[in-house]
Amino acid sequence: MALLEFEKVNKYFGETHVLKDIDLEVDEQEVCVVIGPSGSGKSTLLRCTNRLEEIQSGEIRLDGTPLTDPDADINVLRQRIGMVFQSFNLFPHKTALENVALAPIKVKGLPRDEAHDRANRLLDRVGLAGQTGSYPSQLSGGQQQRVAIARALAMDPQVMLFDEVTSALDPELVGEVLEVMRDLADEGMTMMVVTHEMGFAREVGDTITLMAEGEVVERTPPKQFFEEPTTQRGRQFLSKLL
Ligand code: ADP
Ligand code: MG
């Protein structure tokens, strides 16, 4: 059984049909890279997965448990699914350490010392051992995004969702964030990654999922996708990258 399953998922914004019968399975430890033109529904797919948006029909399951039941506990499922966005959304008046430790204390009820120990370890893991006391304004965009990743990891999620997490960064800061994501992938984290970084997609992705107009139009291993996409849509998308 796949860890994350999408079955006939449909999402509308008013009259606009944004996700059309999405069927998708993400295996445990898979890095599922999602690409596609702007407006194709990539962000909406991730946002529906942790219930920032509600779907109108179909089902999304994590480890066999439906996430999209109206009575599913949103707080519990958000602990199981970490999400990182293009904008870092750190608390500006809290240090890096406090940003990472906050949810484990407030939501999980972890004792403060334990949460701080954990936060220190996580910040070390994303290469920020020396910045635990810094405020977001004292950190570069790449460092802030790494704090945001550590903060998501602090809840010990089963799956991590990344939505264009390097798109707002200065080019010279992109690599350090991708490096952290690559390490996570190597450690076996199950990930869905929306990205324009085709080098990352090719090297780190286990599968490429191409979306267009609310549909999954191609889902193949990266080598095949980048060498010989199986669909017209895939070929079209690739030709625009060159
Ligand atoms: P992508 O991330 O692939 O660029 P999105 O998931 O953001 O695409 O958007 C898919 C479609 O849904 C677009 O047509 C967009 O305009 C529409 N959309 C996204 N969010 C909203 C919203 N909150 N209200 C209305 N329409 C939205
Ligand atoms: Mg988007």
What's this model, at a glance?
The chain has a single domain, classed as 3-Layer(aba) Sandwich (Rossmann fold), CATH 3.40.50.300. It is 38% helix and 25% strand. The protein contains 9 helices and 10 strands.
Question: Describe it for me?
Answer:
- By secondary structure, this protein is an alpha/beta fold.
- It has one domain: P-loop containing nucleotide triphosphate hydrolases (Rossmann fold), CATH 3.40.50.
- About 40% of the residues lie in helices and about 25% in strands.
- The chain has helices spanning about 40-50, 75-80, 95-105, 110-125, 140-155, 170-185, 200-205, 220-225, 230-240; strands spanning about 5-15, 15-25, 30-35, 55-60, 65, 80-85, 160-165, 190-195, 205-210, 215-220.
- The protein is globular and about 55 Å long.
- The chain starts with a strand and ends with a helix.
- The mean pLDDT is about 95.
- The protein binds adenosine-5'-diphosphate and magnesium ion (MG).
- Belongs to the ABC transporter superfamily.
